[in-house]
Amino acid sequence: MTRVHDLGHARAGDKGNISNISVTAYDAAAWDRLRRDLTAERVAAIFAAIGAGPVTRYELPRLHALNFVIQNALGGGVSRSLSIDPHGKSLSTLMLTIELPEETP
Amino acid sequence: MTRPYRIAAGAGFADDRIEPAVEIAEAGAADVLVFECLAERTVAREVIARREDPTKGFNPLLRDRMRAVLPACARGGIRIVSNMGGANPVAAARATVEEAAAHGLTDLRCVAVTGDEVTNLVRARPDLILTESGDPVEAILPDLVSANAYLGTESVLMGLETGADVVLTGRVADPSLFLAPAMHHYGWAEGDLPRIAAGTLMGHLMECGNQLTGGCFADPTRPEKQVPDMANIGFPIAEIGPDGALTLTKLPGTGGRLDRMTATEQLLYEMHDPAAYITPDCVLDVTGVAFHDDGDDRVRVTGAAAEPRPDSLKVLCAYADGYIGEGQVGYAGVGAVERAELAAKVVQDRLKRRGFTYDEMRVDLIGCTSLHGPGAGPSDPYEVRLRIAARTQIRAAAQAVGFEVRAMHVNGPTGGGGGSKPEVREVMAVQSVFLPRDLVTPQVTVLGVQG
Fold this sequence. Notes:
The complex is a heterodimer.
Chain A: E1 2-3, H1 4-7, E2 8-15, E3 18-25, H2 28-37, H3 40-47, E4 55-60, E5 65-70, H4 91-96, E6 99-100
Antiparallel strand pairs in A: 1-6, 2-3, 3-5, 4-5
Chain B: E1 5-11, H1 19-26, E2 32-35, H2 42-52, H3 62-76, E3 79-82, H4 89-102, E4 109-114, H5 119-123, E5 144-149, H6 153-161, E6 166-169, H7 174-186, H8 193-206, E7 236-240, E8 246-250, H9 260-267, E9 277-278, E10 282-285, E11 290-295, E12 298-302, E13 305-308, E14 312-332, H10 336-353, E15 360-366, E16 383-392, H11 395-406, H12 408-411, E17 423-436, E18 443-448
Parallel strand pairs in B: 1-2, 2-3, 3-6, 4-6
Antiparallel strand pairs in B: 1-7, 4-18, 5-14, 7-8, 8-12, 9-10, 10-13, 11-12, 14-16, 14-17, 15-16
Helix pairs in contact in B: 1-3, 3-4, 6-7, 7-8, 10-11
């Protein structure tokens, strides 16, 4: 099983009710894999568990990084949220738990 | 060749640690120290504080910070720029002059920058559309506490041009706090896009302080993510040249790390479209940015680009939106989750029997579902903490939440322990509108030594 955690690192930021989470690959091979398999759809499927979405993905090939902008991820925004983590700081680690499909030889 | 201008981060959030700024000041390692201390809802909190006491309404740690850094800054000729003025920059400047005088620094000049508060302008324009809800701003006017525009560099420049040692502002866009000193030092014009881009990128990377130098980064399970000497993380220092050439570094001997990995994480922090990061000074494009590790915690940054600044300013409108009530209690051992779930059901039944209703209620099993929702982790931990939080327009209903959760000590399933004190807090909601920038006029007030 390969998880995003094996391939790269992540950071979450908050603006209003939107969380953005970057994923940066550790190396070129990891970048190819993340770019191919860590799709907006795959991320949206996981973040649906906290009621979040839709998800937009931006690519930064020079930095081997992806940036996911996830709507409705912060329980109505930092000030109104009932969440124990209103800024969604911990959502970067939810991104890292995502499992990717195994590569076919 | 003259050395580049050095702009250091002194704080990256309202309650940030103070020692790293002191170390930079005492080492004389910067020309300007920038303290960024305003989150989205902070100004509204400060408006309420000011309403209760006209001498308050600025960052509660301002006096502590000034006491700690002013002597070294005065010795080294280091200027200070900060949005610690919150909702009351003039009172903040007065407090700063007092702290300086108490340390024998009687010739300190401090300037307050105001004009970000546009509450009356917004009240007079009920047709403005709230970006988030799409409703006219009229809908929240009865509960509006404050409306503050994100000012750009022109406001900070007005302060720096007075020759002040300390410039204190209210709401100013975070990158502008860092860009303005570079513009002032080198005489860059507002339309000089290559340099404005480089300086805005610098400000964006610096504004959260140690998030650039190893904070929010360590993962002990990955060899790539080790952070040395975390207890002593140093804050970042930007060296910016007359042409906008940018190198990031930190004080030698401090902990943490500054390299391509930490810089990339911070580049994308709170960024949406990387080709269009909107600030009051430009629309920044970071898709061409590259980080070059020079070793020894030095990173060269290239590739910033920008389009001209927008014609309107973003205005944050903060309004009272009821109350949140919250309580917690813990369960452990066999069947911990089942007992926590039973307790949650009993609490909800009792609140209903008492006739309370809620706009939104949330049941968390801390250790199980509280951060990433159901299904993310194992469903049968040894111990679990029940947390119930609910939002309502009625204070008594909010108070009842924590009250009923605490009652689980005696009136709930077996073995409920460690109930928390019931908590109630006022909700300060935030939405934004846009105002034409020519309606917003920054002003300065000089305190301390005149002329």
